[in-house]
């Protein structure tokens, strides 16, 4: 399940060695003993050289997160994923415009992707284990982004929750489908998301006429994940509108979704929603 980001042609050997030395310098003197241990292992050294020769996207991530590479090749990819999930959860009090959300999430997600990719390439994780790790990462990133955008809507007065309530909007569900449900979302996606709104629960929670705010929120999340100007792509997103011609909005009322399925909605939508987990 290694990232499929090879260059059109392999980099010259001198350039590969230069990239490796640049990576060592970025890691710092404090990592010198760990790096020497890695260099003494032919398999791990081969992984490093192959990445710097043939995978420019992963090479760039390695230069940005040298400590993650060292820890992952030492068998610590799961620890990095655990810390990333915890760091994402620690954003639970932060809010700001959508570009700020992208800037907050992207480096955390990239650190975990770097660790999982190198562990995968080194044979320290099976394809199934890598897929499970990526799905856990996608769950955490998606939940963090949704909560952030809900807090932003509350701050702007678009949504109003009871005082002391969490950022979660009662009656709003973000469903991960297909690859995400199957625990194989890929390093950069696509992840399939369906925004479902229970339009009977929302009024009971005092959230009347919230559909426009929630539709905009869903659009902001997709835009953030797809990559804003001067911001990296977090995940490619496929949403339910791409699988159903009758889905006119990003957010579908639960009753409408039931009616669509009861009316014999096309097979792609049924496949989209087959066995999905609720991720946020």
Describe this structure in words.
This protein has 280 residues and is α/β, with parallel strands linked by helices. It has helices at residues 13-27, 32-39, 42-54, 56-64, 66-73, 77-89, 98-121, 127-155, 201-204, 211-226, 254-262, 267-273, and strands at 172-177, 191-197, 237-239, 251-253. The chain contains twelve helices and four strands. Strands 1, 2, 3 and 4 form a four-stranded mixed sheet that branches. Helix 7 packs antiparallel against helix 8 and helix 7 (98-121) crosses helix 10 (211-226).
How would a textbook summarize the main sheet?
Answer: 4 strands, mixed
Based on secondary structure, the structural category is alpha/beta
Name the poorly predicted regions: 4-8
Task: Write the element-wise H/E pattern from the N-terminal end onward.
Answer: HHHHHHHHEEHHEEHH
Radius of gyration: 21 Å
Tell me the fraction of residues in β-strands, as a range: 5-15%
Total number of strands? 4
Helix-residue proportion: 55-70%
Overall pLDDT score: 80
Number of helices: 12
Give the overall shape, derived from the CA principal axes: elongated
What is the CA-CA span between the terminal residues? 26 Å
Summarize this structure briefly.
By secondary structure, the protein is of the alpha/beta class. 55% of the residues lie in helices and 7% in strands.
List keywords for this structure.
280 residues; alpha/beta; four-stranded mixed beta sheet; 7% strand; elongated
SSE topology sketch:
Layout: H1 13-27, H2 32-39, H3 42-54, H4 56-64, H5 66-73, H6 77-89, H7 98-121, H8 127-155, E1 172-177, E2 191-197, H9 201-204, H10 211-226, E3 237-239, E4 251-253, H11 254-262, H12 267-273
Parallel strand pairs: 2-3, 2-4
Antiparallel strand pairs: 1-2
Helix pairs in contact: 1-3, 1-4, 4-5, 4-7, 5-7, 6-7, 6-8, 7-8, 7-10, 8-10
């Amino acid at each position: 399940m290694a990232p499929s980001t090879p260059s059109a042609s392999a980099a010259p050997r001198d350039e590969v060695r230069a990239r490796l030395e640049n990576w060592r310098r970025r890691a710092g003197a404090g990592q010198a003993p760990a790096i020497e241990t890695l260099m003494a292992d032919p398999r791990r050294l081969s992984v490093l050289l192959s990445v710097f020769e043939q995978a420019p996207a992963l090479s760039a991530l390695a230069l940005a997160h040298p400590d993650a590479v060292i820890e992952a090749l030492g068998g610590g990819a799961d620890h990095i994923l655990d810390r990333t999930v915890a760091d994402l959860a620690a954003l639970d009090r932060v809010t700001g415009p959508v570009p700020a959300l992208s800037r907050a999430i992207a480096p955390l997600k990239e650190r975990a992707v770097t660790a999982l990719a190198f562990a995968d390439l080194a044979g320290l994780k099976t394809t199934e284990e890598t897929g499970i790790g990526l799905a856990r990462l996608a769950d955490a990133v998606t939940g963090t982004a949704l909560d952030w955008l809900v807090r932003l809507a509350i701050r702007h007065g678009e949504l109003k929750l009871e005082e002391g309530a969490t950022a979660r909007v009662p009656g709003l569900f973000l469903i991960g489908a297909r690859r995400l449900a199957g625990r194989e979302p890929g390093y950069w996606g696509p992840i399939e998301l369906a925004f479902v709104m229970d339009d009977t629960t929302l009024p009971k929670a005092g959230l009347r006429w919230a559909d426009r705010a929630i539709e905009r929120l869903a659009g902001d999340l997709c835009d953030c994940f797809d990559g804003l100007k001067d911001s990296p792509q977090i995940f490619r997103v496929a949403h339910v509108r791409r699988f159903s011609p009758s889905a006119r909005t990003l957010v579908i009322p639960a009753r409408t979704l039931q009616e669509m399925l009861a009316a014999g909605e096309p097979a792609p939508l049924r496949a989209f929603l087959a066995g999905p987990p609720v991720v946020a």
